[in-house]
Automatic annotation (TrEMBL):
<dbReference type="Pfam" id="PF08240">
    <property type="entry name" value="ADH_N"/>
</dbReference>
<protein>
    <submittedName>
        <fullName>S-(Hydroxymethyl)glutathione dehydrogenase</fullName>
        <ecNumber>1.1.1.284</ecNumber>
    </submittedName>
</protein>
<dbReference type="InterPro" id="IPR013154">
    <property type="entry name" value="ADH-like_N"/>
</dbReference>
<dbReference type="Pfam" id="PF00107">
    <property type="entry name" value="ADH_zinc_N"/>
</dbReference>
<keyword id="KW-0560">Oxidoreductase</keyword>
<dbReference type="InterPro" id="IPR036291">
    <property type="entry name" value="NAD(P)-bd_dom_sf"/>
</dbReference>
<feature type="domain" description="Alcohol dehydrogenase-like N-terminal">
    <location>
        <begin position="25"/>
        <end position="143"/>
    </location>
</feature>
<feature type="domain" description="Alcohol dehydrogenase-like C-terminal">
    <location>
        <begin position="188"/>
        <end position="254"/>
    </location>
</feature>
<dbReference type="GO" id="GO:0051903">
    <property type="term" value="F:S-(hydroxymethyl)glutathione dehydrogenase [NAD(P)+] activity"/>
</dbReference>
<dbReference type="InterPro" id="IPR002328">
    <property type="entry name" value="ADH_Zn_CS"/>
</dbReference>
<dbReference type="GO" id="GO:0008270">
    <property type="term" value="F:zinc ion binding"/>
</dbReference>
<keyword id="KW-0862">Zinc</keyword>
<comment type="similarity">
    <text>Belongs to the zinc-containing alcohol dehydrogenase family.</text>
</comment>
<dbReference type="InterPro" id="IPR011032">
    <property type="entry name" value="GroES-like_sf"/>
</dbReference>
<keyword id="KW-0479">Metal-binding</keyword>
<dbReference type="InterPro" id="IPR013149">
    <property type="entry name" value="ADH-like_C"/>
</dbReference>
Length: 392
């Protein structure tokens, strides 16, 4: 089969690799009909190389049809499914509490991390990912979401990651009824977090330096601003001088405006893998401009919700400000299955209340993945969300 494989920093290729096979009686194999490139994939492309191995199959936003079903998978050949990016058993202590991204059955204990993820480095189990023609799905008796036949792939695909991650970010933000929310970063997660905030009744400000992203958010009802030195003051002026009730950081470790940490990212990429891993595990390498701006902006007693991925173990935080402003921080990988019952009716609603029809900017054959990664990272050609077609 064809699959997108990691080959080095800023280097992915489309290769012929062995087809996956059933390994457990609760496995399933799906033929992937759509698979998206996520902003988190760019961390593998740029920063997390020390945890990757040449030939790793990447990608964690897939959907498709079951072509083989293990006897205990609760699936049958022909089922149309979306596959969450987190791999969870659905039965352990953590899963019983709907903390599926912390599943005790699939935790990567040798790395000290949570549940295994598709296509996401040694940190999360080196599980072959979903940017491929076929995908083995472990714990298929719990993970896959069965969906209907009438709607196109893009109406369902983002249940794999984007929508649950954005929904959790808004839930964690805990905006009071009729309150105010600011979203830093209007990539796919930020776009959907802003729209979900609006759907749930908040006034939403969206901040991003990229014109095309601001334009997409604005046509979906978000009040948009460029990322400048005056942005936070403008939002405070619009919120009676206090700042919004909550801020979502949907940017993460590669924020603009962090030159020292950018140099650290570059250094990690140049070091041998073992030294690069040590630097990430013991140094503050994150580019924190968006997080610091979020902490500065949120009102006293408010909440900062992190959906952007961070990777440094010693990245500094302004503890005096956090304590003095009585700020609550919430964060973590999305517990995808916890939010599906809320989201599935919205993506199937003919009115499309979250504007899912207005997110994909590029749908390309899988053979064009290397160029798509470069385009997505450099934000050229108005690229906001890429979906790959493995069967084209």
């Amino acid at each position: 089969m064809k699959a997108v494989t990691w080959q080095g920093k800023r280097n992915v290729s489309v290769d012929n690799v062995p087809d996956p096979v059933l390994q457990q009686d609760n496995d399933a194999i799906i033929e992937v009909t759509s698979t998206a490139i996520c902003g988190s994939d760019l961390h593998l492309y740029e920063v997390l190389g020390p945890y990757m191995d040449a030939g790793d199959i990447i990608g964690h936003e897939p959907m498709g049809r079951v072509v083989e079903a293990g006897s205990a998978s609760n699936l049958k050949v022909g089922d149309r499914v979306v596959v969450p990016f987190t791999i969870a058993c659905g039965r352990c202590w953590m899963c019983d509490r709907k903390l599926y991204s912390q599943c005790e059955t699939t935790q990567v204990r040798e790395q000290g991390t949570g549940a295994r993820l598709f296509g996401y480095s040694r940190l999360y189990g080196s599980v072959p990912g979903g940017q491929a023609q076929y995908l083995r799905v472990p714990h298929a008796d719990f993970g896959p979401v069965k969906i209907g036949e009438d709607l196109p792939d893009h109406r369902y695909l983002f249940l794999s990651d984007v929508l649950p991650t954005a929904w959790q970010a808004v839930q964690y933000a805990d905006v009071p009824k009729g309150g105010t929310l600011a979203v830093y970063g209007l990539g796919p997660i930020g776009q959907m977090a802003a729209r979900i905030g609006l759907h749930l009744g908040a006034r939403v400000f969206g901040v991003d330096p990229v014109l095309e992203r601001r334009a997409m958010a604005a046509r979906n009802g978000v009040e948009v601003l460029d990322f400048t030195s005056d942005t936070n003051d403008e939002i405070r002026d619009a919120t009676e001088g206090r700042g919004p009730d909550a801020v979502i950081d949907a940017v993460g470790m590669e924020a603009h405006g962090s030159p020292i940490a950018k140099a650290a990212h570059t250094a990690v990429g140049l070091l041998p893998d073992a030294l690069g891993r040590k630097m990430m595990e013991h140094a503050g390498i994150d580019r924190l401009a968006a997080l610091h701006s979020s902490i500065d902006l949120v009102r006293r007693g408010g909440t900062v919700s992190l959906s952007g991925v961070y990777g440094g173990e010693a990245s500094p935080l302004p503890m005096l400000t956090l304590f003095d402003k009585q700020i609550q921080l919430r964060m973590g990988q999305a517990n995808v299955k916890a939010w599906i019952d809320d989201l599935l009716p919205l993506v199937e609603d003919p009115a499309d209340p979250l504007g899912v029809d207005d997110l994909v900017t590029h749908r390309l054959p899988i053979d064009e993945a290397p160029g798509a990664y470069e385009m997505f990272q450099k934000k050229t050609d108005g690229c906001i969300k890429v979906v790959l077609d493995p069967q084209a």
